[in-house]
Target: DUF3718 domain-containing protein
Amino acid sequence: MKLSTALVSASLVVASFSFSFSAKADEQLAASLCEYVAANDKGGLRKKLKSSRLKIRNIFDGVLCNGNNLLRHAIASNAVDAGGYIVKNLPKSKLADGADIAWAESNGHGGSALVGTIKERAGL
Model:
């Protein structure tokens, strides 16, 4: 009886460390992606995604930079190259609702080159 209790306890401890490491790694990855976007480093962004075996379309909704998604972060940072890469790799359906364009216009970024890129890709 004591052996099974010890095994269960040990399993819970190992599981809690595994979860903490995973969450910490995800936070570090998100921070790296945000930094590459803010620096307009398209190559660094691509390399980080590739080395992590991720695609923009799969992580777009889950990564926030200063409370904004990656595309809005690129618009606010005037990161035309990195933002263009993001737009190119998102499905058109993500861009078609115009929410990012409306956000840009309401926050004083309506003249950004990325707004035109979004409109062109989404067919707006």
Notes: The first helix runs from residue 2 to 38. Residues 6-23 have pLDDT under 50 and may be disordered. The two ends are 67 Å apart (CA to CA).
